[in-house]
Design brief:
Elements: H1 3-7, H2 10-36, E1 45-46, E2 51-52, H3 61-66, H4 68-71, H5 79-85, H6 90-101, E3 110-112, H7 128-134, E4 204-207, E5 210-213, H8 219-236, E6 241-247, H9 250-254, H10 257-262, H11 268-277, E7 283-285, H12 289-293, H13 310-324, E8 335-342, H14 345-349, H15 354-357, E9 361-367, E10 373-379, E11 385-391, E12 415-419, E13 428-433, H16 436-444, E14 450-455, H17 459-466, H18 473-480, E15 484-490, H19 497-506
Parallel strand pairs: 6-7, 6-15, 13-14, 13-15
Antiparallel strand pairs: 1-2, 3-4, 4-5, 8-9, 10-11, 10-12, 12-14
């Protein structure tokens, strides 16, 4: 065989192509290994996933001896997790992976499940003894909760032109300032050092480019929630009006009953009524389910995020006004901000689902008329807090697309206050909330002279720093002479063991 024929034979060509693929793959591995060694390129936070990434483990003799320095444990990641979690270009590679998957064809519906199942919802009022029995207070925690799918907030430092506040004065940042550190993940700490319990995005049902939060009724934890609300009511009898607003989440409002039942989830209206029927008679339950359901052809929940929109919060505000006996304002009475391109918690929790990425949300916020000024406290890395002058509805046009919900009420800070000088009757309200309350608060501002709101997940820690030994709701009400208290939580929060344990510390 001639030399030319030898090198042009099919077998030789196939061998050459195989060797070429091997060398290309080896080259790719070498390049990626080199990139992995570029320490200075390793990120510390993930904007898309809204969390702090794993920190490099501290070197210790015990960690080397038991292997936790390399493989970690349940409380702290090791080198292996740090290396994978902080790999340079990590989010770019994830985006490329999702883009590749998007070309596989139509995926239809998708369930991202936390493994929860729903309890049966019994009708009828329970006695105090029955609630305590259901809550398992005489047992060793009979109920179980799946590992939470956390939604920690991304850490974003205030810009350099914001100075520490002294002498109790507030610092008002310019419109272009980046958001202060949010508190759904304890700001400035590693993901394993979280001390502020995170809100749950929970099980997600994705179809036709929209995500829906799914709810599963848990009788034990719902009973615990009722008992804790009742403690607040008993502590405030004769001192303040107590309102309870359990906010429905999107699947119960936006999906048909047939589709919702296919997911195995609970009827949110039945669950909310179960909770309200077991509250102290002095507590006024704000029923929003029917009002939201009547408007489910409108944009009342985000597609890529677990929150309701400001429009959804507005319909809840109208129901609060009806319960309180005041006249709500029309939407046309408010000026607005509009921020396109929002990609929220469903997008990050679904590993950047391509159909959600192709259907980003628009955040619209309604600016209060009486005042748009507020005071808030933001946690620093050393555990102290800085006081800021801020805006109840803020211009977040320069924020990351995953952070646009921060337009509302300063985000999830532990203690906030606004003085509406347009009202002079001494009226006051306290909103005890998770992040669903953020979009609800701006509508309340025009009806009160003094507006306070706290995030129950971090308020106790702030009280410790501020020197307030009484960190209960009733303690704050008594100190400030507050007249109305609104307990505002999304329905998933009422069924979370971790969040209920946190509530129990201040719901008194």
């Amino acid at each position: 065989m001639k030399l030319k024929e030898l090198f042009s034979s099919p077998q030789t060509v196939r061998r050459g192509m195989t060797l070429g693929k091997i060398f290309a793959f080896l080259g790719f591995l070498i390049i990626m290994s080199f990139i992995g060694l570029l320490w200075f390129l390793r990120p510390k936070t993930s904007v898309v996933e809204k969390r702090n990434l794993t920190e490099f483990p501290k070197l210790s003799i015990s960690g080397l001896w038991d292997g936790t320095f390399f493989s970690g444990n349940k409380n702290r990641g090791g080198i292996d997790k740090w290396y994978a979690d902080t790999f340079p270009l990590r989010e770019t590679l994830i985006s490329m992976n999702q883009e590749l998957k998007s070309h596989y064809g139509e995926r239809g519906t998708q369930m991202i499940s936390t493994g929860q199942t729903a309890d049966h919802i019994d009708e009828g009022h329970k006695t105090q003894e029955e609630l305590e029995h259901l809550a398992g207070l005489d047992d060793t925690d009979p109920a179980t909760e799946p590992a939470p799918q956390t939604e920690p907030g991304v850490v974003t430092e205030p810009s350099g032109n914001t100075q520490p506040v002294e002498s109790g004065e507030t610092q008002t940042p310019p419109e272009t300032e980046a958001p202060p550190e949010t508190s759904e993940n304890n700001s400035g700490q590693g993901a394993h050092d979280v001390t502020t319990p995170a809100e749950l995005s929970g099980t997600i049902y994705i179809t036709e480019g929209c995500g829906y939060g799914v709810y599963y009724f848990n009788e034990t934890y719902s009973a615990r929630y009722c008992l804790q609300v009742n403690k607040v009511a008993q502590a405030l009898k004769g001192k303040a009006n107590v309102y309870c607003l359990v906010c429905p989440i999107s699947a119960g409002i936006m999906l048909s009953d047939e589709v919702r039942e296919e997911t195995g989830s609970s009827d949110e209206n039945q669950a909310i009524e179960w909770i309200y029927s077991n509250l102290d008679p002095s507590v006024k339950g704000i029923r929003t389910y029917n009002a939201l359901k009547a408007h489910n052809d409108e944009y009342i929940y985000f597609h890529t995020d677990h929150h309701w929109t400001a429009l959804g919060a507005y319909y809840a505000y109208r129901e609060f006004c009806a319960a309180k006996g005041i006249t709500p304002h029309d939407l046309k009475d408010f000026e607005t901000y509009t921020f396109p391109g929002f990609l929220g918690t469903f997008y990050s929790s679904s590993n950047k689902n391509a159909s959600l990425g192709n259907n980003p949300d628009t955040v619209t916020s309604y600016i209060p008329n009486g005042t748009n000024k507020m005071t808030m406290y933001v946690k620093n890395k050393d555990g102290s807090y800085t006081e800021y002058g801020w805006r109840i509805v803020n211009d977040v046009s320069n924020y990351a697309k995953s952070e646009l919900y921060a337009t509302f009420a300063g985000g999830d800070q532990p203690y906030n206050y606004a003085h509406n000088e347009a009202v002079t009757d001494g009226s006051s309200v306290l909103i005890v909330k998770d992040s669903y309350g953020n979009a609800f608060i701006p509508f309340l501002v025009d009806h009160y002279e003094h507006i306070y709101w706290i995030d129950y997940r971090s308020y106790k820690h702030w009280c410790g720093w501020a020197g307030q030994s009484n960190y209960t709701i009733s303690g704050l009400v008594e100190r400030k002479g507050i007249q109305d208290v609104i307990l505002c939580n999304n329905i998933n929060s009422t069924g979370s063991k971790t969040l209920l344990e946190t509530m129990s510390e201040i719901f008194k």
